[in-house]
């Protein structure tokens, strides 16, 4: 009933018994969840039975725990979210789910879903998003299942869901159930022989704001922004974070309204690619270059990614962002009281956090790409802070990366140190050395030649003769191969093994080249090439990253013959 007075909707009870029916279906190929859920073109989800099949398979994977359970449902508001919410409500009702907690108008950021699952002890949640992929009728949609810890389902579960999609013959649905999710409040329905099914539509923002207030010192942050006039510019890229940003940065922390941009969520993200990087958040970069703002931040479609910029668009790499936060975490009340356990990063992420972990004598973990690999470590109480080079930063407050959390963490560090973003990062480099990092993305390439490139490369770099190979560059530097492999991870908690997680070439001086094929694209292949080089020399650490990494990139292109296989002479995105 919470909030029903403001909305004027109140509680609605339908006494008429609604009948569930079983609908015969056909199997669709390719419903295999990738790095983060099932992501495909909207047009595929719109096919008859396609979405229903996948939703039913998720529920089937829950087995006997499904009956009587509660699930959270919400998404980033992209095109097809509303239809998907309606389908989920009707299928959940037919399958014996007792209650759904649904964000108003189907809107919930991915971090907010994770929080709700944990806070209300639900069996899990269904997140409707294709994250940073563009939205709209001609673009992408996605469905992801999160488990009761609040985190993305591990591979054992997503593999099972995939298996179920391959043999599904029918799904159960209550076609006559009419449920609007535009008003906050409870609606109950009688299904079949008097079973009660409840849909509770909740405020999309409220619980998340409560959580942030528990973690951070809002008074200190308000003082920084309102009293000390630390000017920020926050760009929601027309994704789901808009209402969260308004509530937190404007209403709670006192930022002027025009310090937030693109905060109206749109089904097509205003026609843009809702990915917070230097290419797709170019408008933020441009606005920051004017020098008017001291911190700039952007978020992706579903609010789990973040990009941090300092005065005049000083770019903080996500790997550095993670390390800086790791170095100063205790200034945040949540960590002061709960303590700081270990740190972790995904394999391609630069190793800046490793150095902080060593310095602070904390446990450290290197996991495959994808947030789901952090969950076990957090549940086991061994991990507090983690991140990915792909603009993901987060902590054990939930089980997803969290864009707004990252900005609040940065503001906490700034308020504590009373230094600019750039000074904080440069002081960090001076102490720890700098992990230069860049990532080249070659999007939408033809899949077959990319697969061939990867297999030929793997054969080459795992050949024992590869070790000790030297690559001289025109800059006079020589890189000597220490080893090459395809990254394999053994989870320290459940001992599960995940292999083929990216081809690595590691050189004697610690520099690394990594090649992966994206697992989040909806068609074709996206090649990701990552390069990292560590420098401690004072004369080098303040040089531009592109200059320092150029020789390494040339070696990477030569080694893999990437231009030949992809037919591309330059990447789509460089970060
Ligand atoms: C990408 C990122 C990865 C992130 C995922 C979901 O996956 O590289 O770090 O966890 O998106 O946001 P990829 O497309 O590389 O498989
Ligand atoms: Zn995302």
Could you walk me through the main structural features you see in this protein, from its secondary elements to its overall organization?
With 575 residues, the chain is an alpha/beta fold. It folds into 3 domains: 3-204, 3-Layer(aba) Sandwich (Alpha-D-Glucose-1,6-Bisphosphate, Chain A, domain 3); 207-432, 3-Layer(aba) Sandwich (Alpha-D-Glucose-1,6-Bisphosphate, Chain A, domain 3); 434-574, Alpha-D-phosphohexomutase, C-terminal domain (TATA-Binding Protein, 2-Layer Sandwich). Helices cover 33% and strands 26% of the residues. It has 19 helices and 28 strands. An 8-stranded mixed β-sheet has the order 1-9-10-5-4-6-7-3, with helices on both faces. Strands 21-22-25-26-27-20-28 form a 7-stranded antiparallel β-sheet. A 5-stranded mixed β-sheet has the order 12-11-13-14-15, with helices on both faces. A hairpin with a 6-residue loop joins strand 13 and strand 14. Helix 3 packs across helix 4. The chain starts with a helix and ends with a strand. Mean pLDDT is 94; it is low at 1-8. Residues 35-36, 131, 346, 369-371, 388, 390, 392, 518-520, 528 line the site of 1-O-phosphono-alpha-D-glucopyranose.
Number of helices: 19
- Give the end-to-end Cα distance, rounded to a whole number of Å: 46 Å
Shape: globular
Q: In CATH terms, what is the architecture of the largest domain?
A: 3-Layer(aba) Sandwich
Spatial extent as radius of gyration: 24 Å
Average pLDDT: 94
CATH topology of the largest domain: Alpha-D-Glucose-1,6-Bisphosphate, Chain A, domain 3
Outline the low-pLDDT stretches: 1-8
Biggest sheet: strands, sense, closure? 8 strands, mixed
**CATH class value of the largest domain:** Alpha Beta
- Strand composition percent: 25-35%
The secondary structure category is: alpha/beta
**How much helicity do the residues have?**
25-40%
């Amino acid at each position: 009933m919470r909030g029903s007075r403001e909305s004027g909707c109140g509680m609605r009870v339908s006494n008429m018994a609604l009948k569930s029916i079983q609908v015969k279906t056909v199997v669709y190929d390719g419903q295999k969840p990738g790095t983060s859920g099932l992501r495909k073109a909207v047009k595929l989800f719109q096919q008859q039975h396609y979405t229903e099949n996948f939703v039913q398979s998720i529920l089937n994977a829950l087995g006997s725990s499904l009956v009587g359970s509660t699930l959270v449902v919400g998404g980033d508001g992209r095109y097809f979210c509303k239809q998907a919410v309606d389908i989920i409500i009707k299928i959940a009702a037919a399958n014996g789910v007792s209650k759904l907690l649904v964000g108003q108008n189907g809107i919930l950021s991915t971090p907010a879903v994770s929080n709700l699952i944990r806070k209300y002890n639900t069996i899990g949640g269904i997140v409707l998003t294709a994250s940073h992929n563009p939205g709209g009728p001609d673009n992408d949609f996605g469905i992801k299942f999160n488990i009761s810890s609040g985190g993305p389902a591990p591979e054992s579960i997503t593999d099972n869901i995939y298996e179920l999609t391959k043999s599904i013959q029918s799904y159960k649905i209550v076609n006559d159930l009419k449920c609007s999710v535009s008003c906050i409040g409870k609606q109950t329905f009688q299904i079949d022989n008097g079973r009660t099914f409840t849909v509770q539509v909740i405020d999309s923002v409220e619980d998340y704001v409560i959580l942030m207030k528990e973690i951070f010192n809002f008074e200190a942050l308000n003082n920084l922004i309102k009293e000390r006039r630390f000017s920020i510019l926050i760009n929601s890229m027309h994704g789901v974070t808009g209402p969260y940003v308004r509530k937190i940065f404007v209403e709670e922390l006192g930022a002027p309204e025009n310090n937030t941009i693109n905060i109206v969520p749109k089904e097509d993200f205003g026609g843009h690619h809702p990915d917070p990087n230097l290419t797709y958040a170019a408008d933020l970069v441009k606005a920051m270059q004017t020098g008017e703002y001291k911190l700039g931040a952007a978020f992706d479609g579903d609010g789990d990614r973040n990009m941090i910029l300092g005065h005049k668009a000083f770019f903080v790499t996500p790997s550095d962002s993670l390390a800086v936060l790791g170095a100063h975490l205790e200034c945040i009340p949540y960590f002061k009281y709960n303590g700081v356990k270990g740190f972790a990063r995904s394999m391609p992420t630069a190793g800046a956090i490793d150095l902080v972990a060593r310095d602070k004598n904390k446990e450290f973990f290197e996991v495959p790409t994808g947030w789901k690999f952090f969950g076990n470590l957090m549940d086991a109480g061994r991990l507090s802070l983690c991140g990915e080079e792909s603009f993901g930063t987060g902590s054990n407050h939930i089980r997803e990366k969290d864009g707004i959390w990252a900005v609040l963490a940065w503001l906490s560090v700034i308020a504590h140190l009373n230094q600019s973003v750039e000074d904080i990062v440069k002081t960090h480099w001076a102490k720890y050395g700098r992990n230069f990092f860049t990532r080249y993305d070659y999007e939408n390439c033809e899949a077959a030649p990319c697969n061939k490139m990867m297999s030929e490369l793997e054969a080459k770099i795992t050949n024992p003769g590869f070790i000790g190979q030297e690559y001289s560059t025109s800059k006079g530097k020589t890189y000597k191969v220490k080893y090459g492999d395809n990254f394999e991870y053994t989870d320290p908690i459940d001992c599960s093994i995940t292999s083929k997680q990216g081809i690595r070439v590691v050189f004697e001086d610690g520099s690394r080249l990594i090649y992966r094929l994206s697992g989040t694209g909806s068609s074709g292949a996206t090649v990701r090439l990552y390069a990292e080089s560590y420098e401690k020399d004072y004369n080098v650490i303040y040089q531009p990253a592109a200059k320092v990494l150029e020789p390494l990139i040339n070696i990477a292109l030569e080694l893999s013959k990437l231009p030949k296989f992809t037919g591309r002479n330059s990447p789509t995105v460089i970060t």
